[in-house]
């Protein structure tokens, strides 16, 4: 018996969040005695990239090498993962919570008659039962959830576990996916993705700007800080509503929820709806000229000062130190 | 075109989250309940589409009697009638089964809901309903236009979006900016009182992953302030104390 992990890729590169899911499954398998970890990767991906999934803790990678699966066609991916699950006789599927992962997991829950828990924040308790801790109320609380079915699906939140990097290369095996044309009835006609940048939901460091920056023309220093730190850029809801920044950068209650190691907020007051999107961050730094900004209450470190003075100086200090 | 919009009845986004009964129940004392913000976007788009196609718009909630004011608000915003499945929403699978049953019974062309509820944040119900009904499901959808039986959508992906084409019937989990939230006007509020709100019973009691116990994150310590003229100190703290660089 093995635990299956669904791997997501973009342009042939395995997503880091999927590797975290592999590490999670590796620890879970050690705990439950479910054998080793098998990953299933779909679409065109190089062998070296696939073997490297082993470093995160997978023994084997099933490669559904079918170019029709390069795009994240939800139903087709769900069908392919179900085939892999049955092929290896798995009882547990682990995947990273994401735009595609969520959609695929939900359909698989029905296909596999599996109890599904999403936003999982730590390894489940499996001594007498199967209790999974998940984040709820947009990071403001946790729930312990009991899965009562034999098959189980866990969609894990970013940073639920440390990424392992010391495993051996995985054995890559070709996996022939039986394609149902009906799964391709809906078509992805085009994909627009910010290229060359660090993707916000997966970033370890996020630099975020608010209305205090006064206009889109002032984002240069935010982008510079992101570049120095290898971070993703983000913004508050008013900023995306004003179209200073694209919607996919909006962090908050109704936007992207992030869980980076470091979140730097510049000129954001910290409305409760914004905090809901960032409260899972490990460390929060707030830069705001208003000492009474509510964000300081949620921050680990803060600087009270004008962003236009502080940020350029901070960028120099980061450059000097890194 | 027959449209079904599924809504959640959830605490307002500014609510203080607390639990009672030895942390086994949500404490609703003083909490204001609203239509889930994502569901509200779905509803707003559905009203526009219904008006374009002179179709019919039904709104559904799986919930107990206390969710009726929320359904009435959806009627005031523009839904033609409402269904309340009389049961507490125990888990995603439980809710998906109820929706699938009543959606099939009503043979809707388009089923919309929010990308996720803001209480449990699962984001799974639309996909489950899709699989139960053998319909395609898409989420999170930011744009949705219907032309005959053809649907054009834009779906958010990490760091961007993809454009999709599909045909009815289908299911979509919605988010902004699919439409602007609609505020009910006086005429809507008056007419909502007399629009049909049908209470039906759950068709299954089966659950797979029910929550049993709740907890709050540990309280945050006080913020450590660094002088604005000594920003290098912050960099040192991030590197050596927080160890996040």
Automatic annotation (TrEMBL), chain A:
Gene Ontology molecular function, alphabetical: electron transfer activity; flavin adenine dinucleotide binding
Residue positions binding FAD: 211, 267-274, 288
Domain Electron transfer flavoprotein alpha/beta-subunit N-terminal: 3-188
GO biological process: fatty acid beta-oxidation using acyl-CoA dehydrogenase
Entry-linked Pfam families: ETF (PF01012), ETF_alpha (PF00766)
Keywords, alphabetical: Electron transport, FAD, Flavoprotein, Transport
Cofactor entry: FAD
UniProt remark on cofactor binding: Binds 1 FAD per dimer.
Family, per entry: Belongs to the ETF alpha-subunit/FixB family.
UniProt name for this protein: Electron transfer flavoprotein alpha subunit apoprotein
Biological source species: Algoriphagus locisalis
TrEMBL record, chain B:
Keyword Kinase: no
GO molecular function: electron transfer activity
Pfam families assigned to the protein according to its UniProt record, in alphabetical order: ETF (PF01012)
Signal sequence residues: none
Location of the Electron transfer flavoprotein alpha/beta-subunit N-terminal domain: 23-209
InterPro entries reported in the protein's UniProt record: ETF_a/b_N, ETF_b, ETF_beta_N, Rossmann-like_a/b/a_fold
Domain of life assignment: Bacteria
A GO CC annotation given for this chain: cytosol
Entries under CDD domains matching the protein: ETF_beta
Keyword annotations of the record: Electron transport, Transport
UniProt-listed Gene3D superfamilies: HUPs (3.40.50.620)
Family from the record: Belongs to the ETF beta-subunit/FixA family.
Xref: PANTHER family: ELECTRON TRANSFER FLAVOPROTEIN BETA-SUBUNIT, ELECTRON TRANSFER FLAVOPROTEIN SUBUNIT BETA
Protein's UniProt name: Electron transfer flavoprotein subunit beta
Annotated organism of origin: Algoriphagus locisalis
Source organism phylogeny: Bacteria, Pseudomonadati, Bacteroidota, Cytophagia, Cytophagales
């Amino acid at each position: 018996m093995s635990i299956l992990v669904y791997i997501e890729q973009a342009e042939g590169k395995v997503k880091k969040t999927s590797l975290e899911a592999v590490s999670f499954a590796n620890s879970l398998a050690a705990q439950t005695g479910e054998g080793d970890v098998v990953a299933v990767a779909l679409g065109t991906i190089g062998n070296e990239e696939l073997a490297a999934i082993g470093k995160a803790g997978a023994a084997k990678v099933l490669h559904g090498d079918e170019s029709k699966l390069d795009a994240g066609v939800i139903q087709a991916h769900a069908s392919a993962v179900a085939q892999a699950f049955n092929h290896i006789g798995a009882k547990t599927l682990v995947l990273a919570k994401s735009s595609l992962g969520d959609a695929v997991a939900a359909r698989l829950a029905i296909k596999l008659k599996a109890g599904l828990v999403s936003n999982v924040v730590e390894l489940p308790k499996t001594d007498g039962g199967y209790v999974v801790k998940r984040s709820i109320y947009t990071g403001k609380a946790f729930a312990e959830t009991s899965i009562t079915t034999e098959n189980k699906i866990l969609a894990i939140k970013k940073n639920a576990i440390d990424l392992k990097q010391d495993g051996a290369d995985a054995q890559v095996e070709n996996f022939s996916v039986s394609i149902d044309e009906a799964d391709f009835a809906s078509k992805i006609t085009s994909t627009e993705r910010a290229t060359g940048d660090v993707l916000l939901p997966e970033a370890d460091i996020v630099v975020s700007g608010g209305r205090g920056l006064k206009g889109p023309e002032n984002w240069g220093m935010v982008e510079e800080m992101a570049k120095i730190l290898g971070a993703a850029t983000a913004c508050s809801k008013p900023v995306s509503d004003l179209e200073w920044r694209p919607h996919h950068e909006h962090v908050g209650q109704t936007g992207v929820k992030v869980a980076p190691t470091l979140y730097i907020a510049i000129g954001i007051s910290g409305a409760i709806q914004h905090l809901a999107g960032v409260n899972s961050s490990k460390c929060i730094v707030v830069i705001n000229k208003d000492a009474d900004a509510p964000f300081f209450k949620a921050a680990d470190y803060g600087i009270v000062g004008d962003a236009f003075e502080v940020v350029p100086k901070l960028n120099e200090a980061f450059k000097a130190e890194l | 075109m027959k449209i079904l919009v599924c809504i959640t009845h959830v605490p307002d986004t500014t609510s203080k989250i607390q639990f009672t009964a030895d942390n086994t129940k949500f404490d609703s004392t003083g909490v204001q309940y609203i239509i889930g913000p994502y569901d509200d976007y779905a509803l707003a788009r559905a009203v526009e589409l219904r008006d374009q196609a002179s179709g019919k718009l039904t709104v559904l909630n799986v919930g107990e009697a206390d969710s009726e004011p929320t359904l009435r608000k959806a009627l005031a915003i523009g839904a033609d009638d409402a269904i309340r499945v009389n049961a507490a929403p125990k888990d995603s699978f439980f809710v998906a089964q109820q929706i699938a049953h009543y959606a099939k019974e009503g043979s809707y062309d388009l089923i919309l809901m929010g990308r996720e509820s803001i209480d449990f944040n699962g984001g799974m119900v639309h996909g489950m309903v899709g699989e139960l009904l053998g319909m395609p499901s898409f989420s999170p959808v930011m744009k949705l236009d219907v032309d005959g039986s053809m649907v054009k959508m834009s779906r958010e992906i990490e760091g961007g979006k993809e454009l999709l084409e599909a045909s009815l019937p289908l299911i979509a989990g919605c988010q902004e900016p699919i439409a602007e939230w609609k505020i009910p006007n006086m005429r809507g509020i008056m007419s909502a009182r007399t629009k049909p709100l049908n209470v039906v019973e759950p068709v299954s009691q089966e659950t797979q992953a029910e929550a049993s116990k709740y907890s709050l994150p540990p309280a945050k310590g006080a913020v450590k302030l660094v002088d604005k003229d000594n920003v290098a100190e912050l960099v040192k703290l991030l590197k050596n104390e927080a160890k996040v660089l």
